[in-house]
Specification:
This protein is of the alpha/beta class. It has a 23-stranded parallel sheet that branches. A 13-stranded parallel sheet has the order 3-6-24-26-28-31-34-37-40-43-46-49-52, with no helix packed on it. Strand 16 and strand 17 form a beta hairpin.
């Protein structure tokens, strides 16, 4: 992004405070222009200026010129360092042009402060042709090297068809070692003992393959449990066939390598742990470690890491002792790109880096992160980051821009960005813009996000996010803006969750969720919300969002204060369109022993800390008037300023449209919210809903000009501007 566009983006961020007030007043004239590079100018094949050339296919004695390019990026880094130590960087900066091809990134590419540019002389690492540059952290395998199983190996499989289909390859022929493969889990702790962490993974045509599991798609269910590590497998009703089949199948399993993965207690907490004992006859499982929340009956789980169950296309198993990879081939396996991730290094690491741009580069196949960076004025533009075990991008700093990227097949978070200072309300000027993010949380299924932001004033705008077991966006800290995003097919496996989520804090004031298109959230087995202000999070605004086809609530507010829920269009919510409860107040009234009491008492600790900071009081003047609720509080429990009361909130001009016959729920707003704030003009349209949304069947949720909503005071929404900008 050039400096003029950065300045405009900064002005937009400053404009946020005013525009939020406009949004809350119902005015639809909020600016929708983030004024950033939308990826149109990514082709730099005709360069002018100061350039260094790199080509992975070049000779090793190049000088970085166009006719004799360097072979590695590190050579270009060294030349730039020499220039800085000599005459300095040229005015206008330097662009390192990378020729199309594959670059071995198994050792990781490391940038330090020495590799920084300046405001007047920035440094760019870019694909010469706009794309086609691959930084690969794994090793490509040839389909020709895969051979059939021996008779002994075939007899170890349970499925007869698999015996003739599964192939194997000796990984040692590629120089792959046990260290390259890694252990199935690292140190035995609950936090690290899950599928994929620190271990090699198999990717075919850039798709993550499945470690051999049972059952293949369905789940088993827990039965009786001691609540900690031991449970029986429930073997009745519809679960009987899979459970009883274990008595025939499990004798071929290698129990010393067996893992169990499931939602063992809560529907929003997934764990994968090694199995220390499996009594096949009694169908009794003993896990090697306790699970955070324990084990409850009738919870879904499955077993994995089982050679004998390699029985469907895409399943694989690694014999770590003998370095043999077994795979059930996918369609057209012989012509496929087959990659095994072997490095434990981040593809690109950067510490205290500044004024550097990475553009048009692919990062793939690592057991660690794609980018792991810190610094300021760093841009990641038009890159593809995929087939990553941990995070796609892990970034810390200010003036960081992540834009026009595709990030997919990610084990944990797609983007984890921290910037600014929540304590001093120092804004980060960080921007996550126009990215296509899909299929994340593939290894660790819960509490992993397309976008996770922490700090102050990060903007998340015009991104498209879809397909994950759990949530899409989570934020902590004040003054964030989540706007114009399209989010769908998320929360597919989990309960009590939301596509866009913040919870249990009193330091996220000033954050706004506006003009997002959130649809098709949850599944038949998972009840989820579109927007979830959970566990008394306060000071949030949800304005002008279009929400359609969610299994749970359209918007759920869990007992916070100073929240605004206004002018949202909700179509076909499974439960209430908007629900606003009083859990923090209930905790105070119900007292010790009630489920939210501890949180009611603990949350004001942070409140008191921030009330002592002049920066917070300047940013949020009313914050100083909030009275912390403590165990010895003896004042008026109905005082609107009491921290646990749902006071000074607004829920108005929200519309629920129901396009189907049958039961529906409207709005469930606690009386206390209305007494201490504003609740008005929230309405439902049923009989003529389809007539007023003529494009519904085609995914266009624009209301007709004469829709009932506008008669109730609803303000027209810029539906056509929501989502990713594709040029």
């Amino acid at each position: 992004m050039d400096i003029n566009k950065r300045i405009i983006a900064l002005l937009f961020a400053c404009f946020f405070c005013f525009s939020s007030l406009v949004a809350c007043s119902g005015d639809s004239t909020v600016s929708t222009d983030t004024t950033v590079d939308n990826g149109e100018n990514t082709d730099i094949s005709e360069p002018d200026g100061n350039y260094i050339y790199v080509d992975a296919a070049a000779n090793e004695d190049g000088d970085g010129s166009k006719t004799a390019p360097f072979k590695t990026i590190s050579e270009a880094q060294n030349k730039i360092r020499e220039m800085k130590n000599g005459d300095g960087l040229p005015e206008g900066g330097i662009t390192v042009l990378l020729a199309s091809g594959e670059y071995d990134a198994r050792s990781g590419i490391i940038f330090t402060e020495e590799d920084s540019g300046t405001e007047s002389s920035p440094i760019t690492y870019a694909a010469a042709d706009g794309d086609g540059v691959f930084l690969l952290g794994g090793i490509k395998l040839s389909a020709d090297d895969f051979v059939p199983l021996s008779d002994e190996e075939k007899n170890m499989l349970n499925d007869d068809t698999a015996k003739g289909a599964v192939l194997k390859v000796d990984l040692s022929k590629y120089g792959i070692t046990s260290e390259d493969i890694g252990k199935r889990y690292s140190n035995g702790s609950v936090s690290s003992a899950y599928k994929g962490m620190g271990t090699a993974e198999l990717f075919i045509n850039s798709e993550r393959m499945t470690v051999s599991r049972y059952p293949n798609v369905e789940s088993l269910r827990t039965g009786y449990s001691d609540g900690e590590t031991v449970f029986d497998i429930f073997s009745a009703f519809e679960f009987e066939a899979n459970a009883l089949a274990l008595k025939e199948r499990a004798p071929k399993w290698n129990l010393s390598e067996l893992f169990a993965c499931g939602y063992f207690y809560y529907g929003w907490s997934n764990s994968s742990l090694p199995v220390s004992d499996f009594d096949i006859e009694q169908l009794r499982v003993t896990l090697a470690h306790n699970i955070s929340y324990g084990i409850k009956a009738m919870k879904p789980f499955y077993f994995f890491n089982i050679f004998a169950e390699t029985d469907m296309p895409g399943e694989y198993y690694i014999d770590r002792n003998n370095l043999i990879l077994y795979v059930y081939p996918t369609e057209d396996f012989s012509n496929s790109s087959i990659v095994i991730s072997t490095t434990q290094n981040n593809i690109i690491s950067a510490g205290n880096l500044s004024y550097v741009t990475f553009k048009g580069i692919d990062l793939a196949a690592t057991r660690a992160n794609g980018f792991a960076i810190s610094g300021h004025h760093i841009t990641i533009d038009n890159c593809k980051i995929y087939d990553i075990c941990v995070n796609g991008i892990n970034a810390v700093g200010s003036d960081i821009t992540i834009q026009n990227c595709e990030i997919f097949n990610i084990g944990e978070d797609a983007i984890d960005l921290r910037g600014g200072d929540a304590d001093t309300v120092e804004e980060s000027n960080d921007l996550i813009y126009n990215n296509y993010i899909h299929h994340w949380g593939q290894n660790r299924k819960t509490s992993k996000y397309a976008v996770k932001i922490e700090g102050c004033a990060i903007t998340v705008s015009h991104n498209e996010m879809h397909d994950t077991p759990h949530q899409a966006v989570i934020w902590n800290g004040p003054n964030h803006v989540i706007e114009y995003n399209e989010v769908y097919n998320v929360c597919l496996e989990t309960d009590d969750c939301g596509a866009l989520y913040a919870g249990r804090c009193l330091d996220a004031y000033g954050s706004t969720v506006r003009y997002n298109f959130i649809h098709d959230i949850g599944s038949g087995t998972a009840k989820a919300q579109a927007i979830y202000f959970d566990d008394a999070v306060s000071g949030q605004t949800a304005y002008g969002n279009v929400i359609a086809n969610v299994t749970g609530y359209g918007i759920q507010v869990g007992g916070g204060r100073d929240n605004v829920v206004e002018n949202n269009l909700i179509i076909n919510s499974g439960d209430n369109a908007v629900i606003y409860d009083t859990r923090a107040r209930d905790g105070m009234i119900d007292g010790e022993g009630s489920w939210f009491y501890e949180h009611t008492v603990e949350m004001p600790i942070r409140l008191v800390e921030l009330q002592a900071k002049p920066e917070w009081i300047e940013a949020f003047p009313d914050y100083k008037n909030i009275i912390p609720y403590t165990v010895d509080y003896s004042g008026d429990i109905d005082d609107p300023n009491l921290s646990c009361n749902p006071a000074k909130s607004t829920v108005k001009n929200n519309m629920l449209y129901i396009t189907h016959d049958g039961k529906y729920s409207g709005f469930a707003i606690s009386d206390e919210v209305g007494k201490m704030g504003t609740v008005e003009s929230n309405n439902v349209v049923v009989d003529t809903a389809l007539e007023q949304i003529p494009g519904y069947e085609n995914g266009d949720y624009t209301l007709t000009d004469n829709a009932d909503a506008f008669g109730f005071g609803f303000v027209k929404l810029p539906f056509e501007e929501m989502g990713r900008i594709i040029t």
